[in-house]
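This part of the workshop introduces the protein records we will be handling. Getting from the letters to the C-alpha cells is the skill we practise here. An example says more than a description, so a record of this kind follows:
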Amino acid sequence: MPLSSDSKVKRKSLVREYAEAIFIALLLALFIREFVVQAFKIPSGSMIPTLLVGDHILVNKFIYGIKMPVTGQVVVPVKEPARNDIIVFKYPLNPSQDFIKRVIGLPGDTIEIINKKLYINGKPLANDHGVSLDNRIMTEGPRDNFGPVTVPPHSLFVMGDNRDNSADSRFWRFVDYKNIKGKAFILYWSWDSEDFSVRWNRIGHLLE
C-alpha cells in the first residue's frame, strides 16, 4: 500500500530526529575527547612498574587549563603541572606521536643524574617512583649520568619510571607546556597479551 502524505511526513520526521540525535552524540563525544577526558593504551614498558604494556588509562584534559585545539595555547588556566604528575604529551621530536612520562623537573629546577641517582636542585628527589632494572652503570650516553641542566620557563623535564629503558628528557630534553595533553589519573582496563588474560587487580587503580 502506498504511503499517505501524513505517513511520509512522520517517516521524515523520525529519520531527522535520529540523524539529529546521532549528530549531537558525535559532537558531544568529540568535545569530551578534545577537552575533558581521553583514553590511551600503554604500548611500551617505559613506565614499569607503574604502568604495564596493555594497560588502558584515562587522561584528564582540562586539569592544566582549557586549550585551543590546534595551537595548544591555554585560554582558561586551571592549575600548573606538579612534580610526579604522570602526563601525556606530544613527543617533541614527532608531534604526531603521544608519549607518557612522569614530571620530574619544573621550570627553574636544576636536574642532575650521577650514577643513576637523581638530584633536583642539588638534593635527591623525594618520593622517587623510578626503578632501575639494570645494575650496570653506563659511562657513555645520558642514561645513568646526566646534566646538570636547568629547566627553561613553560617547560618540564620528564622521565619514565623504568629508568633504564625510557626515551625521555635525558635524550631529547624538555616538554613545552603547549604540548601537554593532560594528566593520567585512572587505569580502567588492563590486558596481558602474553598470558592472554585480563589483569583484574589493576582495573580501577588510581595513578600516583
In short: Residues 40-206 form a domain with the Umud Fragment, subunit A fold (CATH 2.10.109.10). Residues 130 and 207 are 14 Å apart (CA to CA).
